[in-house]
Design a protein that fits this description.
With 128 residues, this protein is mostly beta strands. The protein is built from no helices and 9 strands. It has one domain: ApaG domain (Immunoglobulin-like, Sandwich). The strands form 2 sheets. Strands 4, 5, 6, 8 and 9 form a 5-stranded antiparallel beta sheet that branches. It has a 4-stranded antiparallel beta sheet with strand order 1-2-3-7, with no helix packed on it. The two termini are 18 Å apart.
C-alpha cells in the first residue's frame, strides 16, 4: 500500500496481481488496483481529471489521461472519501504506476494537482 498527501487530500493506492485474468506465457499480466481519495481539508473539492504514468519493464512508458475516474468526477466535502477500483495490463511481470489527479476547490474554483503515489506492479513469482 502506498500513500501520498497533497494539500490535505490523501490518496491511498493498493495493487494486486490478477492471476485469473493474466497469461504470463503470452506476455499478458493484469493488475487490479484500489484507490481511496480522502479530503482532510476544510473546503469541498471535486476531482476533474487523472493523469497516469505506467512503466513496464518490457514496453515503452505509457501515459493515460482523461476526465474523472471510472466515469465519475466525485465531489468530496471535508471528511469525506471516495474509493474506486480499476486495472492495468503489462507485457512483463514488473512495472509501476503513479500520477496526478486534477482537483478544483469549489469555494474559489482554484485548481491544483494531487499526487497519486507510486504502486509496484509485480508478478508474484518474478525475480527481484
Amino acid at each position: 500500500m502506498s500513500t501520498a498527501v497533497t494539500q490535505d487530500i490523501r490518496v491511498t493506492a493498493r495493487s494486486r496481481y490478477e492471476a485469473m485474468h493474466s497469461d504470463p506465457k503470452a506476455g499478458r499480466f493484469i493488475f487490479s488496483y484500489r484507490i481511496t481519495i480522502a479530503n482532510h481539508g476544510r473546503g469541498t473539492v471535486r476531482l476533474k481529471s487523472r493523469h497516469w504514468i505506467i512503466r513496464d519493464s518490457l514496453a515503452a512508458t505509457r501515459e493515460v489521461a482523461g476526465s474523472g475516474v471510472v466515469g465519475e468526477t466525485p465531489t468530496l466535502a471535508p471528511g469525506e472519501e471516495f474509493s474506486y477500483s480499476s486495472a492495468c495490463d503489462l507485457r512483463s511481470g514488473h512495472g509501476t504506476m503513479h500520477g496526478t489527479y486534477r482537483m478544483v476547490r469549489l469555494d474559489d474554483q482554484r485548481e491544483f494537482d494531487v499526487l497519486i503515489p507510486e504502486m509496484q506492479l509485480r508478478f508474484p513469482f518474478a525475480a527481484n
